[in-house]
Predict the structure.
Amino acid sequence: MYQIALLTIFPAAVIFAAAFDLFSMTIPNRISLALIAGFFCLAPFANLSVEDIGMHVLAGLLMLSVTVTLFAFNLIGGGDAKLAAAVALWLGLNDLLAYAFMASILGGVLSIGFLMFRQIPLPYAWAKAPWIERLHTPRGGIPYGIALSAAALIIYHQSFWMRGLAS
């Protein structure tokens, strides 16, 4: 049961976050809360000590402090900030920099892609979809949750959670 939870909870939550961000430019709090609850439910089964759990909490708090600062400067959305912190909680200090680096690279690629997408005219059929029209707006936001989620899946695949399943 533990293995199934590891293979579903984290990936499903970040995939839902990316989809919500793409279609609505929001990431519901319940997704970040589900990630936090999932971590604390599964941590004992991963043989994490109280000290290890504390280090994971520290990783989440460090990421939250960075992302709240970015939010304060209107560089990312609040949902993005909470999602990144919840992901950092799962990944811990060992994978925190790799996650931040991967999210930055993928976020840059995503942003360039959206800037290019906004330069081309929308086909008539696409222009009828409000979510596509919103994404095409020249001064519109970038659904950065997509980059955060993709980076989370890439790093999670290499995390201690998955290494534990392999042994």
